[in-house]
Design brief:
By secondary structure, the protein is mainly beta. The chain has two helices and 23 strands.
Amino acid sequence: MAAVASSRVMLRSCLLALLALAALAPPALATDASVTFKCCAYTPNSVRVLPGEKLTIAPETGSGLAFDNHPLHYADGVGNTLTGTTPAERTFPQAGIYQWYCGIHGSFDGTNVHGMSGRIAVTTNQLPVPSFTASATNVASGTEVTFDASGSSDPDPAQFVNYTWDLDGDGANDPGQTSVNPSAVFTNSGTTPRNVSVRLTVTDTNDDAVGPESATKSMLITVQPSGGGGTTTPPPGDTVPAPDTTAPVVKITLARKLTVARTLKVPFTTNESTSVAATLKVARKTAKARRDFGVAGRHTLTIKLSKALRRLLRHRRTATLTLSATDDAGNGTTLKRTLKLKAR
């Protein structure tokens, strides 16, 4: 009987210990993407999360708006009965593209949303990174310019990129232009310099429910009028735009001591369009991410942390974050920050 009583005491102690551990368990992951709205737009209207992460949509603080006058509708029928100002939260367990729209200021045609609307890509895929150079960017009329996109890449293992080009600057991809090294002859029959926006689109081979994804990069080619002489003889008055030699201004707005889960989200600001690469180094382990940001402003780059790296971070460790930003003219800025990280 004494042995039985002792066993019961031991069992009771174990249960109390388990309850104590449960009380100390880390809280659920914070919102992984957030969108606000006011009349009549969602900001941002396109976001990305990993499967299992969450999107929160809420009226802008102080706007006086609510879901009553901006009813939230998902194209797949979720979230159509919201009222008031309580944020709408939805977790996305499966990869795919999900669309939402305002029931008053937006619409859904059965395939795509329109008007006041937005989309979320739920995927582990990382966007490809477009990059290209030109044999010249300021040319005389009739000059052939060759482009080289071999610097483009995809951060996902076992994926590669395909190329499409808009070489004539009309905003549409040119049929048949899928080479990594295309060329085009640029002409100008006018009397003033002509700027042509050449655009490269790289598309990856992602095969999850989101499917192949694309990213673009553009470059201006300045074509002098006939007799203008291109780079060797600028026209009178020096109307050729001065080359951009100023590095982008980048500021990291990330706390130096953090607790992380499967990802590290790096918030930062830029003063112009940039291509940004981030590298996180912990001991001998590294994690990387790259993405193009087509406008200036506030951005977030998400670095996925491997299981091996998270094991290193079970106890708080010093990590080095390197952020490199390159603008459309090829000017670069590199920032480093020392962090104290611990994994949940």
